Amino acid sequence: MNKTKGLTLLELIIASAIFTVVMAALYTSFSSGTFGTKSIDDSIKLTGRARLILGKLNSDLINSFVFSEEEARFSGREDQLTFMALTDSFIEDAFIREYSLVSYTQDQERLLRVCRKNKQALNPNSEVTPQELSAGAQIKFEYGYYSIADDRIIFKDSWATEGTDPLLEEEKNPPLAVKVNLTLGRQKAQSFERTIYIPYTQLVR
């Protein structure tokens, strides 16, 4: 009669060890794929959000205008930008263009847009509910003019604020361009940059 040969304790230990190594490798591979996919998804979401914000900024700036010959009503710092612009409103099933005072402001980690329309545009302190464009955002503005001596656009960190260059007459003139540096995300932050040219200005020095 043939006797059935069983596994020895050593063989069981070796088999268990091999099984553990194989399962650990499979888990590592699966986890890497999962986290890699999540990282790509997060990056796509941040890119999409940045396109919306920069697209809105671009639309507002190319529709901006000078308020009067003596007062452009265009001013800006690194964390805030305010200007007059034509904006769209949807009234009675139709889009209507209205003159507005538009502001973009960095409020801690929030990026806010305030749009004061019609009579409210004449009062920069009028109460208007701000629109939050993004949480976990950092934005920086720079303002450009064309330098004849350097034959290029020079960017500075403020416009029409205290201590501005009198030769540029910044109270009367908007900048030639606005450079926007936008950072989104907290853990894995991504930076996006765009230079927006204002079509009606030819500001030189």
How do the helices and strands line up, and which of them pair or pack?
Blueprint: H1 9-62, E1 75-76, E2 80-91, E3 94-107, E4 110-117, E5 131-135, E6 137-147, E7 152-156, E8 177-184, E9 190-197
Antiparallel strand pairs: 1-2, 2-3, 3-4, 4-5, 6-7, 6-8, 8-9
Q: What does this entry look like structurally?
A:
There is one protein chain. The protein has 1 helix and 9 strands. The protein starts with 8 loop residues before the first helix and ends in an 8-residue tail after the last strand. It is elongated, with a radius of gyration of 28 Å. The longest helix has 54 residues, at 9-62. The chain has one domain. Helix content is 26%, strand content 36%. The strands form 2 sheets. It has a 5-stranded antiparallel beta sheet with strand order 1-2-3-4-5, covered by helices on one side. Strands 7-6-8-9 form a 4-stranded antiparallel beta sheet, covered by helices on one side. The chain is α+β, with helices and mostly antiparallel strands and 205 residues long.
Produce a short descriptive summary.
It is built from one helix and nine strands, in the order αβββββββββ. By secondary structure, it is α+β, with helices and mostly antiparallel strands.
